[in-house]
Specification:
The complex is a heterotrimer of chains A (174), B (558) and C (304).
Chain A: H1 2-16, E1 38-40, H2 50-53, E2 60-63, E3 69-74, H3 84-88, E4 94-96, E5 112-117
Antiparallel strand pairs in A: 1-4, 2-3, 3-5
Chain B: H1 3-14, E1 18-22, E2 28-33, H2 38-48, E3 52-61, H3 62-65, E4 67-76, E5 81-88, E6 95-97, H4 107-117, E7 120-122, E8 172-176, E9 188-194, E10 197-204, H5 212-218, H6 225-229, H7 237-252, H8 258-286, H9 290-311, E11 320-321, E12 324-325, H10 331-356, H11 359-365, H12 373-379, H13 384-388, H14 395-398, H15 419-443, E13 462-469, E14 472-479, E15 488-492, H16 494-506, E16 509-510, H17 511-520, H18 525-528, H19 546-555
Helix pairs in contact in B: 8-9, 8-15, 8-17, 9-10, 10-15, 16-17
Chain C: H1 2-33, H2 43-52, H3 63-83, H4 98-119, H5 122-153, H6 158-161, H7 174-190, H8 202-205, H9 215-240, H10 249-272, H11 279-303
Classes of the chains: A alpha+beta (174), B alpha+beta (558), C mainly alpha (304).
């Protein structure tokens, strides 16, 4: 019986042929819904910061250097490509691209930087309707620092300094 | 027995000790008892009512009530009821009667709340450190609400060593792990070996700490947690994603639309398919049978591709949000999925036919790593381990969730209780999964894939959910909270219980069988090690820089 | 004398040059059976070069012994190579006898023991004890095969024994055929391949005795392992399939390599379709083989 099994196993192997793909010479085409690196389209972004509020990895930062300018920064450090930012974006400004080969020597290569000119609605500062109540961020308005509540990565600062923008965890880069 | 019958039994037996109870739906029971009676109630539930132990949860509720909460969860598999025995401890009192004498399976869970919340299980048989790293100071308990999520203890002591038990007379100590070619993740077994025979072992795991539970109750929001939950495990991630969503939905009484339930079922079964095929591959690799390893991975690959087409990623499906799912299964995907399943079924029939008669594999697996019915009961082992020992438990049938109550399937059991039986169970379950997915594709109704959540989720509600992961039952317990996030979220992965059975499984076995015995539970250390705060270095798992490593490698002279 | 030296050096060179190629064949064929592409055929040469170029790290309890063990493992196999006919005139004719061969082959096992002992880690020692058990049960098998030849030809001389002596004598060479089958079964164990690679068993004891080795020392051990496949193959051919050995120079060598090649294919297919046996199961198998071999020897003695 055992010999029979071995022969059956051999037949499985023989039938299979070679399974190795010629990657990386010929990358396998990615499917339509593939969730690769998110790409931010500055022309469409209205600066609502919905993406920043719903990023589980807290990879999208918002800075307000002045009343008129809002800077949205995508870090790409520990982004998990879950695609929630693209889900909640009311303007379709974020697309999950098909890029996945993002190895780099300098993590800053993955950063994306949008500068948005904002209208000044002093009444509410809001321009984003959440898909559901669960997407709301109840802790703060969008224009204020919220240091007491310790929202870690999403933090607006009055200016961009040269230092590390990731203040939550001291990540050691080599 | 229904939930209310179980409750009335408890009431007749324990009278005034049962303080109040809640039966939010037919298959859930929450009973509050007095701390003094907790031990007896749990023993009664476990021994006399023959419930299966699930897990224990500690919670710091001092901000609202000034007390700690302890919950012991049990499952009445035949009666389709998940029960929680809860008790509020005395005000500012951090000690509770240990139930480990009556319920040995509670060993780790009690040590866990001792480490993380500082609630002393009085009378515990092995009150050693479990979760916290060796150098962590006494008295700092990361899951307490007054400890911030990014707390780093200032008095962390790198030089402190874990005190292992003394090896038995005449045995040498073989360290197995933290790094070993067959362990995909760090875990340390200290094996006591006499010749080639294992006489005993001590486990020291919990080496990868990611702080997932702490983050969820302090930083993240309801809809962000699913994406984090699926990263608890690299293989059955979607299980945690779905289990979390279901636990919250149960707590907040949100009903996902039927189509979402069917899609969840399909994705869970696809995950089981790839996981079982992966396990067959890894098990053969452990046995040195790399050809079957490669072939089962080859057969598995189309499943990964189809899930990539459905969800956008081979493995992390990012499937659930509260109240529904994110990915629609279009008619094209449906027919493609059918084709993938037929190809898979054909290939797997060939493999199953070949492997079942393979005496060479049987020699290495029959009578190895035996976990009999008694051990299954005592240690509350779950999944293929239990089913291979002839204990027919399967959450898909016993505690139906998603769309499992609308499909037909068999619970595969074997009687051998050894690695070979576990192999058979997994090989045969592949066909059941294919059957389930086909029925789902057939019966899936049209409609929306996510429910609209109109109001805030109510705070302070409890929910639990058990999902049959490929490795066994994954159980999540959620207490909803304010600020759009849960107050407490406890994850119990199947490996958490199964790993506790390993010492008994490998005793008096060959050292060579150790790896396959451990492998046969398909251990998932990342599932088990999900808690705790970041950036901890134990002496053994220190992160060395390259320079340091080179220096060390050159200087070792023993 | 001079020709003996030339032939012996030719054998050593042949083994050194061709052994990695055969290893390449093993890897490539294994890959094909496993539906993989597999490495280029010349990869083992590059591997050896790579390892030789690496830093020599001394991490064991007795670095001197470790160096000795590494050198010994390759040296003993190469010494055996000088005595095995490889399509040329039997080298060292009239010098050695069959017992030397058995001891030299034992020496290559001893080098593994030394390696494990000198490394001194728990897993090395486990690998060492397994290797020892394997040696104790396997060595006699080879000795019995050689003695069978000696009994049937009435001479212990190497060149006589290694000239297809298994089938010597008149009538149906029954003991020789039985021995052929036994050694064929045991061949997997002689060259340390699955399902009998218990002493290294990566997924159980992490390469056992080899665990602590890297760089040039590992290169020597690996080279010895590759060479062992070729040398044992040649030895097997000399004992049981000597046809073509007496052909003129390049043809005889090519015939020998061709036969070894077929043997390598067989070894690979068996290795790729089997799971590893546990050490106690393996030893039981060796014992059965040894029993059969001794029975064949007894028959041969009675008939002689």
């Amino acid at each position: 019986m055992s010999w029979l099994s071995k022969i059956k196993e051999a037949v499985i192997c023989l039938k299979a042929g070679r399974a190795t793909l010629p990657y990386p010479f010929e990358p396998r085409p990615t499917p339509e819904r593939f969730r690769g690196r998110p790409i931010f389209d500055g022309a469409r972004c209205i600066g609502c910061a919905g993406c920043a509020n719903n990023c589980p990895a807290r990879e999208i930062l918002v800075f307000d250097p002045s009343q008129e300018v809002r800077i949205i920064k995508y870090l790409g450090l520990r982004c998990t490509y879950c695609g929630r930012c693209a889900d909640v974006c009311p303007e379709g400004a974020i697309t999950m691209s098909r890029e996945f080969e993002t190895a780099t020597n300098d993590i800053r290569d993955l950063e994306q930087h949008l500068e948005i000119f904002m209208g000044t609605c002093t009444r509410c500062g809001r321009c984003f309707k959440e898909p559901s109540i669960l997407e709301q961020l109840k802790l703060k308005g969008y224009r204020d620092d919220d240091l007491e509540n310790d929202r870690w990565v999403y933090s607006s600062r009055p200016f961009l300094d040269g230092g590390s923008v990731v203040r939550d965890i001291e990540i050691e880069l080599d | 027995m229904t939930a209310s019958e179980i409750l009335s039994q408890l009431k007749t037996r324990f009278d005034a000790s049962v303080q109040r109870a809640d039966i939010p739906q037919d298959d859930r029971l929450f009973v509050y008892v007095t701390p003094a009676s907790l031990r007896d109630v749990c023993r009664y539930v476990f021994r006399d009512l023959d419930a299966r132990y699930v897990t224990s949860i500690g919670m710091d509720d001092r901000q609202r009530t000034g007390r700690y909460l302890i919950a012991h969860n049990f499952a009445f598999d035949k009666d389709h009821v998940l029960a929680s025995i809860l008790t509020y401890l005395r005000e500012n009192h951090a000690a509770v009667e240990s139930i480990v004498e009556g319920v040995p399976a509670a060993n780790w869970a009690e040590r866990e709340f001792k480490d993380l919340l500082g609630i002393e299980p009085v009378g515990h048989t092995t009150p050693k450190r479990l979760v916290l790293p060796d150098g962590w100071p006494e008295g700092a308990h990361p899951l307490r609400k007054d400890v911030p999520w990014n707390f780093v203890p200032p008095d962390y002591d790198d030089s402190r060593q874990y005190a292992f038990d003394d090896p038995p007379e005449g045995c040498i100590v073989v360290p197995f792990g933290p790094f070993h070619p067959t362990l995909d993740e760090p875990a340390h077994f200290r094996l006591y070996v006499d010749g080639e025979t294992v006489k005993g072992c001590e486990y020291r795991g919990f080496m990868v700490h990611r702080g997932i539970e702490k983050l969820s109750e302090s930083v993240l929001s309801y809809n962000e947690i699913p994406m984090l939950a699926e990263r608890i495990c690299g293989i059955c991630g979607s299980v945690h994603n779905v289990t979390y969503a279901q636990a919250v939905e149960q707590a907040a009484a949100v009903k996902p639309p039927p189509r979402a339930e069917f899609i969840r079922t399909i994705m869970l079964e696809l995950e089981r398919l790839h996981s079982h095929l992966l396990w067959v591959g890894l098990a053969s690799h452990i046995l040195g049978f790399d050809t079957l390893f490669m072939q089962s991975f080859r057969i598995r690959e189309p499943i990964m591709w189809i899930t990539e087409k459905i969800s956008g990623n081979r493995k992390t499906y990012a499937l659930c949000v509260i109240g529904g799912v994110r990915w629609e299964i279009t008619p094209e995907l449906r027919s493609e999925l059918r084709e993938v399943l037929s190809a898979l079924e054909k290939e797997w029939l060939a493999v199953a036919g070949a492997v079942r008669g393979d005496r060479n594999v049987q020699r290495r697996t029959k009578g190895v790593g035996v976990a009999d019915k008694a051990l299954v009961k005592e240690m509350a082992l779950v999944g293929p381990i239990a089913r291979a020992a002839g204990v027919p438990i399967d959450c898909r049938r016993d505690h139906p969730y998603a769309a499992y109550d609308r499909v037909e399937f068999d619970v595969v059991t074997q009687e051998g209780a050894d690695v070979w039986s576990r192999l058979l169970v997994r090989v045969l379950e592949v066909f059941e999964s294919i059957r389930i997915i086909r029925q789902c594709l057939e019966k899936m109704p049209d409609g929306p894939i996510a429910a609209a959540v109109e109001a805030d989720l109510p705070a302070g509600r409890m929910g639990s959910s058990s999902v049959e992961a490929p490795r066994g039952e994954a159980h999540h317990f959620v207490v909803t909270g304010e600020e759009n996030r849960p107050r407490r979220w406890r994850v119990r992965a199947p490996t958490y219980q199964n790993l506790q059975g390993v010492p008994a499984m490998i005793r008096e076995q060959h050292l060579a069988d150790m790896t396959i015995s451990l492998g046969s539970i398909d251990p998932c250390f990342s599932c088990t090690d999900r808690l705790e705060v970041v950036d901890i270095r134990t002496d053994r798992t220190r992160v060395y820089g390259q320079e340091e490593l080179l220096r060390l490698a050159r200087s070792v002279r023993r | 004398m001079m020709t003996a030296v030339v032939i012996a050096s030719f054998n050593v060179l042949l083994v050194l040059l061709v052994a990695p190629l055969f290893e390449g064949v093993v890897r490539r064929l294994t890959a094909r059976i496993q539906s993989r592409q597999g490495p280029p055929l010349l990869q083992p040469y590059l591997d050896i070069l790579k390892l030789l170029g690496k830093e020599d790290i001394e991490s064991g309890v007795a670095p001197g012994v470790q160096r000795l063990a590494a050198a010994l493992s390759l040296a003993s196999v190469l010494t055996v190579a000088t005595m095995v006919p490889m399509g040329t005139r039997p080298p060292l004719s009239g010098i050695g006898d069959a017992i030397v061969l058995v001891h030299l082959l034992g020496l290559s096992g001893v080098s593994i023991l030394l390696a494990g002992l000198a490394a001194g880690s728990t897993y090395s020692l486990l690998g060492m004890s397994r290797e020892m058990v394997t040696m104790v049960t396997l060595e006699p098998l080879l000795a019995v095969a050689l003695i069978l030849g000696a009994v049937q030809t009435g001479s212990m001389h190497l060149d006589v024994v290694l000239g297809g002596s298994a089938y010597a004598g008149t009538g149906l060479p029954l003991p020789g055929l039985v021995m052929l089958g036994t050694i064929l079964f045991a061949f997997q164990a002689f060259v340390g391949r699955l399902p009998y690679d218990t002493a290294e068993a990566e997924t159980e004891i992490m390469e056992g005795a080899m665990m602590e080795y890297s760089g040039p020392k590992l290169a020597l051990f690996k080279y010895a392992r590759m060479a062992r496949l070729l040398v044992y193959g040649a030895l097997f051919c000399a004992l049981f399939a000597p046809w073509g050995n007496s052909w003129p120079f390049p043809l005889g060598t090519l015939a020998m390599l061709g036969k070894v090649f077929l043997l390598v294919l067989l070894v690979t297919v068996v290795a790729a379709t089997h799971a590893r046996y546990r050490i106690d199961q393996a030893v039981r198998h060796y014992a059965i083989m040894l029993g059969v071999a001794v029975a064949a020897l007894v028959v041969a003695v009675l008939r002689a």
